[in-house]
Predict the 3D structure of the following.
Amino acid sequence: MTTDVTTAGPGLESLLSRIIPRERLLTRPIDLVAYACDASFYRLIPQAVILADGTAEVQALLALSQQYRIPLTFRAAGTSLSGQSITDGILVETARHWKSIKVEEDGLKIRVQPGVIGAHANRILVSYGAKIGPDPASINTCMIGGILSNNSSGMCCGVEQNAYHTLESLTFILPSGRSFNTALPDADERFRQLEPALAQGLLELKARIAGDPVLPKRIRDKYRMKNTVGYSLNAFLDYEKPIEIFRHLLIGAEGTLGFIAEAVLRTVPDLPVKYTGLLFFPSLHAACAAIEPFRQAGAKALELMDRAALRCVEKQPGVPANVATLPPEAAGLLAEFQCREEAGRAGLESAAREGVEGLQLLDPPVFTHDSSRQALLWKVRSGLFPSVGAVRKSGTTAIIEDVLFPLPRLADAAVDLTRLFSRHGYHEAIIFGHAKDGNLHFVIAQSFNQQTSIDQYARFMDDVVSLVVDRYDGALKAEHGTGRNMAPFVETEWGAEAYAIMRRLKELADPAGLLNPGVILNANPQAHLKDLKTLPTVEEVIDKCTECGFCEPHCPSRNLTRTPRQRIVVRREMERLRQAGDSADRLNSLARDFVYDGLETCAVDGLCATACPVSINTGDLTRHLRAQRHSQFSRWLALLIAKNFATVEKGVRVGLRVGNHMQALLGDRPVTSLSRLARAVLRSLIPLWLTPMPKPPRVPLPTTRQEGAFAVYFPSCLTRTMGRLPDESGSGSPAEALLVVSQRAGKPLWIPSQIVGLCCATPFSSKGYREAHLWMANKTVESLWNWTGQGKLPVVIDTSVCTHGLKSCKPFLSTENAARFERLQILDSVELAADYLLSQLVIRRRERCTVLHPVCSLVEMNLTAKFERIARACSDKVVTPISAGCCAFAGDRGWLFPELTASATEQEAREARSAGADGFYSSSRTCEIGLSRASGQVYRSYLFLLEWATRDENH
């Protein structure tokens, strides 16, 4: 007999706490709200969120779900576009603790767990000349669990290289709790013995399909095209053994039949030689008509973009300037030809010429071999959906659908689809997609705030279904999974018999119907109109967010508190509650927990903006909200500190000197304990003393000469106050190293003595102290203007975080200083070393292996490649960990909230330790402290490596 637990509360939490450690059992309102949304336009608040770790926990959760009749849904990256990864039951997150990757058979196969990001798998496979088959546009964010569960394909893989066709084996867990590894020799026998009803039922369904006069052909025809509507019925035709059939039924099942714990995928060749062009046609029909000639010429990718889609991205980097001048009916086609060897480039050019021959184009075709240019074009295409969503009217949500038409009728179908937009009032709708496969995506901006808007959407969807299914016999979903939006229409597309087989399959695998209910199969014809997500207007800096989740892998707080997307989701929920006015307790709970989760543990590093297709920097929201919390006194105090920064610098040096002396006398633990006691009394005003702690430089400013200087050197306040780590006591400060290598290269630097007391103003900006930020930024720029002779000399900064802060300060400058700023050339030391010094230096020795940590600011300034080039010049082997990202030290976060840095660096530190390197390097002192603390290895400025490698020991 079972007990029914249907609502969240102490009962459910108590049950879950028996099998899941408290730190991985999330039940606070802020946790539940944060996981209520994926990238779709649906919203469900779960009863609990579980950060599952290991198959034993999944089996226990399945048992609990079955016993208490609580729905259970698995979620990886949460980039699902059709609501597959949300639930009002128990949400089991597999993104955090399921990240194992192993390359097998010399790159022919790869073993992966569901939390592995698709692009990470590909990065590991690069050296083998291979990649995974599926290549969805979200591959830099989406994870293997979602790729398999949605049978993802993408831009180039078509049908042949999708998840279904590249699957080698699976380890899966059924609702019964039994686990099976399909690669084992006795897997089918064991499956039949332990799950006899399921195994026999699968064979009966296989026979039922085979005996139908029309269904086998229908299935074959459907799966020659992209199609993810319903379950993968082709498995019944392609395989004989029950275990093989079920293994492939799990692909595209969206977590409704079982849990995929591990997969072995056959890899496909990575074709690194590419020839890419963006072509413009006078009409959408003409662009679609060009697909077949390009296919015949061998194009690997053909991405269609109508004029409305191009209009949304025409101002983004990488988009040709002539896009803005295209006529209203125009359309674009991104075409790419690929091959394995460099010798094949001429062949690619010939194929492209063959493809464009006789086509009606607005402009002469322009193709490129340049990889950076190609990357920009693909970035524009990959981020098209969020970019389009960002220009929607505030308060509406962006809906993307994913249909397929037979290629011979694609041009007519695309035109008919645009007519539907006009008929139903979606005048801003756009079309883009993988036209090589007849796969079109369309995006509309939709409000769900009024019933009239919902009715509008319902009528539109009915017409879309009629167009795709009745008129063109296409697929309502080509690659995004069935989800909630198309679940009511599965029978319409497949017919009654195929639908009955799918229902029987679900009953066999999940008799209680508790795995991701309502997804794929849903008896409610109005299911696609339920649980719709409203988007209340919030702060302008984040209002464009479509909640796509592209930002999440880059966020340093993602495994501790919130991600950028979750911060925005919570802010929107707070606004919903504020407008409703009847949930004060819930609103107060969210507001209280948001201080730590949303503000104190946000590193404001800006990496979220680098991944966001519309460049939303959630750090701007954090700075804005921090500023709102400041009292008038605290703002006055911050300005006073800015104006007396020289005294502050001296105080920091004295404090570090005293602290290091106390540590030498008393040891690490007593000093750390004293700092904890002081912090307990004065709260977050006092940083913790945590090793390794830096020592002040022997001299704040080395002596230099102005005469003959190549550039003005602006040592950051970090360098001036924290010049040495304990293990660097014999090697001076980064400032001394930079001066030495610059002198060796014949590019001497000058440090003005009046530089003490000035900084890039980032410390004030990140904390939301606007007045102090303005004062310091203007004072610094004014001083640099004078020292550089009104911009005649470059300015060099040794800390990448500070370089970025200064380069970004123009909006905060006075009119006069903004004009001066435009004439200043500000160089990060990495730019100086790579572009001006390296070619003038003699490399006299090399490290065997070097590990790098490119700081977030270096990434934002696109200097990572130059940083790696310097290291390669000085090392035989250079390792940049795949998981390298922001260390979250963020100026003082590493001392105020060390758990943030520990969480952000955990995986990177593990990779660094396993590299067996001789040296570990970065370009920011606080980042070096954070990585040293996390890895147990001493991270130093890369300038020490460059100085050592170019040092002549005979002089």
About this structure: The chain has five domains: 1-267, 273-480, 536-622, 642-834, 843-949. Confidence is low (pLDDT under 50) at residues 1-8. The chain is about 45% helix and 15% strand.
